[in-house]
Amino acid sequence: MITSGYADIIREGLWTNNPGLVQLLGLCPLLAISGTVINALGLGLATIATLLISNTLVSLLREHVRPEIRIPVYVLIIASAVTAIELVMNAWFHGLFLVLGIFIPLIVTNCAIIGRAEAFASRNSVPRAALDGLAMGVGFTGVLVTIGALREIVGQGSLLDNAQLLFGEWGRDLRIEIFPQEHGFLLALLPPGAFLAMGLLIAVKNLIDARLEARPIAAPAAAPETAPTQS
Amino acid sequence: MRFQTRTSPHMVPGHSVGHLMRQVLYALIPGTLAMAWFFGWGVLVNVVLSVLFAVMFEALMVTLRRRPVGVTLGDSSAVLAGWLFALAIPPLTPVWVLLVGTGFAIVVAKHLYGGLGYNPFNPAMVGYVVVLVSFPRELSLWPSPQGLMEGPFTLWQTLQTTLTGRLPEGLDWDAITRASPLDMMRESLISGQTVHEITRSPVFGSFSQTEWEWAGNLFLLGGIWLMYRRVITWHIPMSMLLSLATIAGVFWVIDPDQFASPAFHVFSGAAIIGAFFIATDPVSAATTPLGRVLFGIGIGILVYVIRTWGGYPDGVAFAVLLMNMVAPTLDHYTRPRIFGHSGDGRG
């Protein structure tokens, strides 16, 4: 992993080592805040920013921090970053800040962030660590927004509800209504819906992986049996 | 006379999965007919449609999983799941509720966990709980026998209502539905009436509402027949009903104005059908004798707690699912002593 190139870092974060679907880290916000797309996107963006800042700072300080005290130092860095982001959101996205509530400060405890600091940023150069933070954050946000979209469509029949919280007043027009809210499948908005959506998403990812894996094997199988399979 | 020589086993046991499931189905018939007698054609329409959907989903999942369809459908477990689901939901429920409920029961609760024998939760109750928490409005309307007598509901009208979700001309939901006894007890207690005042209402029979008592009696009959045929053992039903009656009795003695009598709790809602038919599901229940007793006691206590202090009028489905979660642990700690080994059961 240490010698992996930039493309590998991106692929790891977005797909093969996705924090939401593969590492299964940070499930608390993933399950609690994925009721609507906008909530999911808001928390996802905050998480991306935190990962970017914490990975960069941890990588910068990696030569100067003694290994015995590295975990408290990481926690301090992450907590400072989250506090700053929380203040920014309170100032400029106050509505969203109120909706997300406790889950913004709780980003500190998101295992995906300290996991990346310990496993990647503390052993890699600054650009690579920053890219890893960005890729992991985007991968996490992608899962978050996908679950949010699934739950919002099934649960209340809309998409991008309350977009004004994130995009300002013009966001109101972004709301797409697929069917009236009273026909919604309430279970999708309740906590079990988050677990079900999460499980189905992991199943879909595994299915795609299995298909991708089967493809290079299937091709030589069609060839004569004497041909050695080298993939 | 020719004597066939075959390898062992020479005596084939009469019990197969399909055989057991079909006996449970036979035992459900009297209670189901009683419910149809009191609540109209809707009960039978629900049963037929739910069983149809359940078998359809089962066939679909078995085909997707590339298993032999005939063998799996032949064990009748999907029929039983659909039937139990249909008895849990009120008659005249729109058809899409049935579709969602049976779909969750068979696809998610049964086959995503690995099919019959692998499901940790009772499929019928998972389906019921899913529709109960998702569509509270549709699931709270029980037709009242009196209302159905005023506006006679033919089979055709029932089918129309179920398929379209709209009542025939000249009828509205308020006229033909009524709170179930548990609903009524709950709402009236909240509004400050005493148990004595509530049960004096003419719709109440000796313990609960007359029609629920009779349906309960006939399910009890079916359950006793199942015990006689040794399809189920006495442990779960008896311990569940006894613990429900005991805890209800304790509170009833303390304050008979605020807490309903043990008989009311046993003969209301899904207590009896739950004790004999739902909690005894051989897959998701505990399997050791002591484990089964504890399993039943847990369900009885949870039913009472949910009914009395919880957010829903009846708690059998929730209680069964919660105890399903505990069943593997119960089995682990209540393993009977293996013959020839010391008491700790290990060996």
Q: How would you describe what is shown here?
A:
The complex is a heterodimer of chains A (231) and B (347). Chain A has helices spanning 6-16, 27-32, 37-60, 70-92, 94-100, 111-119, 126-156, 164-167, 186-189, 191-222, and strands spanning 158-159, 176-177. With 231 residues, chain A is mainly α. Chain A has one domain (6-213). Residues 220-231 of chain A have low confidence and may be disordered. Chain B is an all-alpha fold. In chain B, helix 4 (77-88) crosses helix 5 and helix 6 (123-134) packs antiparallel against helix 17. Chain B is globular and about 70 Å long. Chain B starts with 16 loop residues before the first helix and ends in a 14-residue tail after the last helix. The mean pLDDT of chain B is 85.
The termini of chain B sit apart by 49 Å
Radius of gyration of chain B: 21 Å
- Structure summary, number of beta strands of chain B: 2
Query: Proportion of β residues of chain B?
Result: under 5%
Uncertain stretches of 5 or more adjacent residues of chain B: none
Report the biggest beta sheet of chain B as strand number plus sense, adding barrel if it closes. Answer: 2 strands, antiparallel
Number of self-contained structural domains of chain A: 1
- The main sheet of chain B orders its strands as 1-2
The count of helical stretches of chain A stands at: 10
Structural class of chain A: mainly alpha
Q: Identify the most extensive interface between protein chains.
A: A-B, 5 and 7 residues
Largest sheet of chain A: 2 strands, antiparallel
From the spread of the alpha carbons, the general shape of chain A counts as: globular
- Count of distinct structural domains of chain B: 2
Biggest sheet strand line-up of chain A: 1-2
**SSE order of chain A, one letter for each helix or strand:** HHHHHHHEHEHH
H/E element order of chain B: HHHHHHEHHHEHHHHHHHH
By DSSP (H or I, 4+ residues per run), the number of helices of chain B equals: 17
Low-confidence stretches of chain A: 220-231
Mean pLDDT of chain A: 84
State the oligomer.
heterodimer
